[in-house]
Design brief:
This protein is α/β, with parallel strands linked by helices. The protein has eight helices and eight strands. It has one domain: Vaccinia Virus protein VP39 (Rossmann fold, 3-Layer(aba) Sandwich). It has an eight-stranded mixed beta sheet, with helices on both faces. Strand 1, helix 3 and strand 2 form a beta-alpha-beta unit.
Length: about 240
């Protein structure tokens, strides 16, 4: 099932319907998205006011939701894939079926915008940045993670990772990977001062997880690999930015 995308072009959105049963399996095809959601949520500050809104652009099945518990946000998720949104609702997300380049929400409505593992799937990533910035109120926070437009990233994230049980085959099209310097500059154009940092799965935890997968035993609760910082942004990186007033 994890190779459903082999029957479709790279980065085809229909893959998410074929892999719909994998979203909430901690050891399934989207396991790494769970690890990244936890790391992304760590960048989200506690809500500063009652009724604070977090807009989760490209929310998928709502994997960010458990990691926002207790932070005080109303969690609105935006995605094109209806099968994923149906699962997000079951996890407490208020869903909007819409395009990340034309989100049907008001200017300045969001205290936080999250865009996790989204930009590398969108041909017009600059339009997504513009929308995320439009949604943010002054002082609002943008959090994101994505893949860098480098030869090393294409090797690691496509040629290597797609041969491991961490990334579904065909899920990425490296033509859409996003240069971190261009992303910082584009955010600045829209009034968001973005800082980026390289990240990766912790090696010991990842090796234990892979060994358990090879042996057919799932990863016990609390033993999933953690996402840790790294000096290089050349493969995977996350960003946190604040919109100027």
């Amino acid at each position: 099932m994890r190779d459903a995308g082999l029957s479709l072009p790279r980065n085809d959105p229909r893959q998410y319907d074929e892999l719909a049963g994998e979203w909430w399996r901690p050891d399934g095809a989207f396991a790494m998205l769970h690890w990244l959601a936890q790391a992304r949520a760590a960048l989200v500050p506690p809500a500063a006011r009652p009724g604070a809104l977090l807009v989760d652009v490209g929310c998928g099945a709502g994997l960010l939701a458990p990691h926002l518990a207790g932070k005080g946000y109303r969690h609105v998720g935006v995605d094109l894939t209806r099968s994923a949104l149906a699962q997000a609702v079951a996890h407490g997300v208020t869903v909007v079926n819409g395009d990340a380049t034309a989100v049907p929400l008001a200017d300045g409505c969001a205290d936080v915008v999250a865009a996790g593992e989204l930009l590398e799937h969108v041909p017009q990533w600059r339009a997504v940045v513009a929308e995320a910035s439009r949604l943010l109120r002054p002082g609002g926070v943008l959090v994101l993670d994505t893949l860098n437009d480098t030869a090393l990233c294409r090797l690691v994230a496509v040629r290597i990772a797609e041969r491991l049980p961490t990334v579904p085959r065909g899920i990425h099209d490296p033509r859409f990977f996003v240069d971190d310097r261009e992303l910082v500059a584009e955010c600045a154009r829209h009034g968001v001062e973005l800082r980026v940092q390289g990240i990766r799965p912790g090696v010991p935890g990842l090796l234990r997880w892979l060994l358990r997968q090879a042996g057919g035993a799932g990863t016990p609760a609390g033993r999933a690999p953690r996402i840790v910082p790294t000096r290089s942004t050349a493969v995977l990186y996350q960003g946190r930015g604040v919109r100027r007033g």
